[in-house]
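Anyone else keep sequences and structure tokens together like this?

Example one:
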Amino acid sequence: MKSASGDAPPSQDSKPSSMQYTWMFEGNNAPTKQLDALLRAIAHYITREIGDRNDPHLTPKKLAAFYKAVGGDYDSLFDKDDHTISSMWQLTGCQHSLQPTDNDYAPPSIPALTSRGFSRWESLEILLGPEEHVPFLQYAVKNWNLKNLETGEVFPSDLPKNVFPAQPDPDVDRWHEDCAANLWKEASSEDLPKVTKSEPTPETSSGPKFAYPKNADGHPGRTPLDWPNAEQNAGNTSSRKPALART
């Protein structure tokens, strides 16, 4: 049950927290155990409390609702066709399943991240755009009474931004551009709609207004998958995997 404000009330079975936040990434850009646990807690909350509560899967609709809840608007990304989103997650190593559609005679095709896949997805997004995604996490921790799914310990509501990178990681950014070029080539070869760059619009609801800060040149920050122009990446199809790939 939620409070009148819409935020989750304290859980009676939560353990008092003595947790302190530390730097959230390993030297190879892998998320620490603490960040992984936090992101899995957010994934668990999304499946139970965000969007359609009868759907326990991290589908594109659920994720779009999540980003709106924390102050973003990524509808233009998650409105893309199922095949494109599944290919995007496959190329970036985000574990996911395919869920059935309303057509009982059609094969499963709706992509849905696993908790592990969501942890990797959001870890990448933090490394690509900490100025956007760190506030998203801060809002979730402050308002949703998240707890470690293994220990039951509550994550402290004050998540400092100095435990995250202040700037995008250049190596992950270059790898990300390679993935974008590969996705564009796949879409072109299969005659699928091309993934195009779109600029988000600021959140206009009563939620937090910190989404999409301006860059130094006055333009909005990058979107979750701000795929570069494919012509600029022709021939740039490196198979290098991101440093945060898990075994």
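And example two:
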Amino acid sequence: MEPTFPLLRLPDNAIIKVFQNLPLGTLFFISLVSSKTKKFVTSLGLRADRVDIRIDRLSEVVVHTQVPYFNLPLLPFTLLEFKDWMNHIRTIFCYTSPPNVRFFQGCERFNVQSLKDAIENVNNLLLSRELTNAFSRNVLKHFNIPNNLCLRKNPFEEVLEIQKIFLQNFESIAFHDFFSLDDMLLVNSQKTIFTHPTTQKQFNQFIKHWTHGSNPRLQYLYLLINKTDVVSGEVYLKGIRCMEMSEDAKREIRQKHRLSVNADMIQIRRKDGTPAVIATKDENILYVRFIVLY
């Protein structure tokens, strides 16, 4: 039998020094031993930058600290246990912000209302394409006020239902399914990402509406235009008053928004004088970023 070390019999300051040199995962599980060890670990002032929860067949919680991060597999677990885990994580890592939650195939075995009760509010909410439409709608019903939303597909049959989602004032929304011009004009998020390719004509119509005052909260829009639609010329700029930009101004925007050095751009203005740039990168598809300059 290997000799044991009576760690908890040491003076408090000695215990803390030992704890300060232990790996993050070890500290977490030591904090579960007793209220005394929990108190010592909490006193270290560990801070989590964010907490990510992945819910599927092999559910897990990933706690991101500066260096490194802590991965906690939760298989199997009950929702009651899960709520206890979350409360413990919040205490140990002094974490009060909403977590990021991603739903993947296999999560359907859980009751959504019970998940909501255990997790409470969320920061980023992602629903994968593999989920059934009914389950996705149920998640959106209960987790209805995330800061950021990512939908891998449209779970609604009625157009008005997905448009209700677009109308919400998220910080950002990423949508990976077909979208119409009406959908674009209803978007009320600061940052919007559309990954289903659109047409030059639709983007052109959107820009014209924006110059007349639509989408007042929008600060950043990312979308793709089919390459086959580009051969007819730059239709997406037709009828839009554009202003040339200096290379210095382009370089500054590329750096600030992490754009490719090959991205070209032009500037436009809304009728109220608000400036914006349209940055494009032409590869197999036309990558478009519309950035409002406040």
